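Revision sheet: structure tokens.
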Amino acid sequence: MSRRPSHPARLLASALAAGALLTTAACADGGDSSGAASDTAAEEAARAAAQQAPTTSPSGSPTGSTSPSGSSSPAALTESGAKAALITEADVEDDWNQVNDADKWHDQLLAGKVDVAGFLDAKTDADDCQKLLDGLYSDGLLGKPSGASALTGFEQGDSRLMEQVAAYDHAQLDDSMKWLAALPQTCDQFTATDSSGGKRTVQVIETSVPDVGDARQGLEVTVQGTADGAPTTLTLDVAVVRVGDDAVTVTGGGPDGGASDSVQRGAQQGTARLKTVLAGGTPSPPSQFD
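Predicted:
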């Protein structure tokens, strides 16, 4: 294939060609112009083709084309999906029995007003600790869900185990996870007063959670007070796992102590089930070897 002449060479060739045409015209009155017309048509076609050809980016791909992303966002959590993601008796093992009225559980030892005078940073810390008690009492530890939610519960003697799967506003969930992480410091120990004036001592410590999900937080909350006229200590283990803008919250325990093993297993299995649902699948029963 021949190389195209450089720009100066083309100009010189054009000038020489023009001179030759003038000389030919001086010797004859007319000539065949079909060759010139053919050249003009070819140039016009070349220009049109150049205008229609797609331009390319420095990487070599056409700038007008859109390449597929190759990635897809998780599906939004639906009501049916939230229910399917809930753990079952097989997920938590032991002797837990599933119940149908877990949404009506409200432990009275968690109902009380925080004593503001016991805090150095009274307003801020007291509000955080009040939010903790209210959230545990009402099963709304992370606040009100912004989307689908489902809840289930289990009983074993006087102990209870509860799990909630729900969708939340992104910023709200961010704030809730930060708030949970700070509770062992801001609410390590405080006093609350019940409606009869009885005092309750509340302690909060941080606990471990299986390394699952996008973020996680574990707590143990102990409430010492009086129930039915007798001294009582309520111990609750809490595990919260975030998966995108959804979360799995598991709480368990009672007057006989916490339920750390069951809560951790519930968080692990619940997270796996939620991720399966968000990926468009159906959670399968846990293996006997889990």
